[in-house]
Structures are given as structure tokens and as C-alpha cells.
Amino acid sequence: MLNKLREATQQLHKDIEGGNTAGLIIDHSITLEQYKKLLLQNFVAYKITEEKITKQIPTYSQDKTERLSQDLLNLKVDTSIVKDFENNFNVNTPAEAWGAWYVVEGSSLGGMIISKNIKECKALAMMDEHYFFSGKRQNVKGWKQYCKDLKSKDFSEKEEIEAINKAKETFQFFGRIFKEV
Fold it and tell me: Whole-model pTM?
């Protein structure tokens, strides 16, 4: 199932990565305002997605939203814009939740690469700690647990289609957030 999700979303993943300001961290040119915007974009996407996943899989942990919230609080960024997007994404079945969860965990893995470059960004030197882009190994645990749980789950053909379609839709939702926030 993991390979099916990966193959079905590969191009969407590349497209969204290309339109994201995270690359400015990689090349160390990001400004504080751009960083605040990047955190806010991620907050909106993760908060809405994680809340919807939790409605279908109550044991799901919304830890990414919590870390983003801490960063935004420290930077005094208003997060009320999230309300404008709350009704633009839904997860209606557990299978759909697995598809959305794939995107959430996979994109947070990308945050590990970004975190290795964040300390080289002069505009962010005044920040004592980064919670979302922390680079802590514990952030990879979610991906590993997701993969383990996914392997033990039996999906019907209908559920596979639901999960794959929702993964695609989740990437598109993230892309929309990155364009509109």
C-alpha cells in the first residue's frame, strides 16, 4: 500500500515542493517574514488535516500542529486565517484518513532535511528554538509508526482507492494553502 500511495502522489509531491518557500531555508536566504509565512502555511495545512484525521482515527496524534503552534506563538503570528480554510477539506472514512496521514507524515520527513539548514539562516539566528523544524529524531518516529501500522492494515480494493484519492487530494489541499496563505 505504501508503494501505491508513493507512486500515485509522486508528481503532486514534486509540484508542491517546487512551489514552497522551504527552499529558501536550504539556500539560507529566507527572511524572518518569509519564515513566519512558511510556518503559518504549514500550520493551516496541518491543523485542518490533522483534525480531520483524528475524527476517523482517534488515536492519531496532532503533534505537528502543536509544534507549529508553539513556533507561531513565539513569533507572535496571528493564526486566525485557519478559519478561512476549515471547510475546504474533509476526511470521511478511515481509509481516507490513512491517505491523508501519508501526506502529513511524509511531508514532516522533509522538515528533517530543512531543519539541518535552519541554523545557517542569518535572519533566523535570533530564534532560540525551532519546534516544527527542530531536527529531533523523535519527529521521524511518526513516519516509522505510520509505515508499520500501514503494513499491518488490510485494505479492500475500495479502501485502497479511497486512501490513494485522499492522499492526492491532501497534496492538492496543501498546495492550495501554500498558494493562498
Answer: 0.94
